[in-house]
Specification:
259 residues; mainly alpha; 11 helices
């Protein structure tokens, strides 16, 4: 008669017996399933990098700090691609914060963390560029506003007044403020007019930022999905070992009686 395991019986099996049964089953080649595609063991999942500690050098002879790779900053990923004027320290702080939050376990997760940081850096860059573009349009925006509110006789002076205002001339600033006040306008009109002048470029910047946000979020999802898959495989493996152990415990008495 075939004996079937029940959940109530499973709970009555001591841990020591469970472990010994698992060992017996492994020795008979029954408990450990064949490695499924993509399965990564605990050792592999915990390995922070593919670098060898025995030979911590790159192909170009550059020495490698293994601790940096274990912190999620593998030198194999190269230097950050920064534009002139961008702070490498700010980038490294962002990378360190992201690595501390995710704690990448291997080179795959390091790549995804680096992708996250690169896309986030691109988003911040695009926003800075959009703001800089609007600031650069301030003179043109002021000229357009002055030509709308000034009398026709004073409009030819709009270009010079706007230029002096942008350069920080106090007399020009005071005159522009008086003009805007008489027209019941505020300095917000300059920002609005500057945005309208470069709206096409600013809108493209916004679309690029949205795309970067999607790629950034995709990197986070890849890490979550991979860790979830590894966790499920590990749970299935443990369950198969326990099930096989319980089966052996139930079959052993029958085997002794038959002998």
């Amino acid at each position: 008669m075939t004996h079937h395991k029940t959940k109530s019986k499973a709970r009555l099996v001591p841990d020591s017996t469970r472990k010994s049964a698992a060992v017996m089953s492994q020795s008979q080649g029954k408990t450990k399933p064949a490695s499924s595609p993509g399965h990564i063991s605990d050792t592999a999942a915990a390995a922070p990098t593919v670098l060898s500690a025995d030979d911590p050098t790159l192909s170009n002879g550059q020495s490698i700090n293994i601790s940096d790779a274990r912190d999620g900053q593998s030198p194999l990923l190269g230097e950050p691609l920064l534009l002139a004027g961008e702070s490498k320290l700010d980038y490294e702080v962002l990378l360190a914060d992201a690595s501390d939050a995710v704690k990448p376990r291997n080179i795959l997760e390091q790549v995804w963390v680096r992708d996250f940081v690169d896309h986030q850096w691109s988003i911040l860059r695009l926003r800075r560029h959009a703001a800089a573009l609007m600031n650069a349009s301030k003179t043109s925006a002021l000229v357009a506003v002055l030509k709308l509110v000034l009398p026709a006789a004073e409009r030819p002076e709009s270009d010079e007044l706007a230029s002096n205002f942008t350069m920080g001339d106090e007399a020009a600033i005071k005159k522009v403020e008086d003009i805007l006040e008489k027209a019941a306008l505020t300095s917000d009109v300059l920002l609005a007019e500057g945005t309208a002048i470069r709206i096409d470029v600013i809108e493209r910047f916004d679309r690029m930022a949205v795309n970067a946000q999607k790629w950034r979020d995709a990197a986070v999802r890849e890490i979550d999905r991979r860790r979830l898959g590894i966790g499920m495989i590990e749970r299935w493996t443990v369950q198969e070992i326990e099930d096989e152990g319980y089966r052996l415990i139930q079959l052993c008495p029958r085997s002794r009686e038959a002998a």
